[in-house]
Amino acid sequence: MVVRNELSDEQVDRVFQALAASTRRDILRRTIEAERSVSELARDYDMSFAAVQKHVAVLEAAELIVKRAEGRERLVRANPEMIARARALLARYEDLWRSRISRLDDLLAEDSATDETDETDSDPGSAPRGSTTT
What we know:
single chain; mainly alpha; three-stranded antiparallel beta sheet
């Protein structure tokens, strides 16, 4: 089973790269809660304003957030559509993994049932299969 995705490989790479940093995940979480200015976001981090702007740019390139100008401020909000698309991709991978684990469980159960049948079919007083008596 191949996971089909409505995101291109490049989009998937950008999303996972963006989510790889804890600061960017925190920015995304905060912008899901409410639209915030880049200045407001920057106040809560022990890094320069320029560093926060770079984190915002990575999230924007991944389309996880949308930035807009309002006067001199740049406001940032989460992009629920892209978040939903990324979530759907992960759900498809989860389905794939769960189906593979389920098939493995079935194979192990079949193997176990076969072993139990082989043991019941043999005569308890006879020599085990494959051995010879002299």
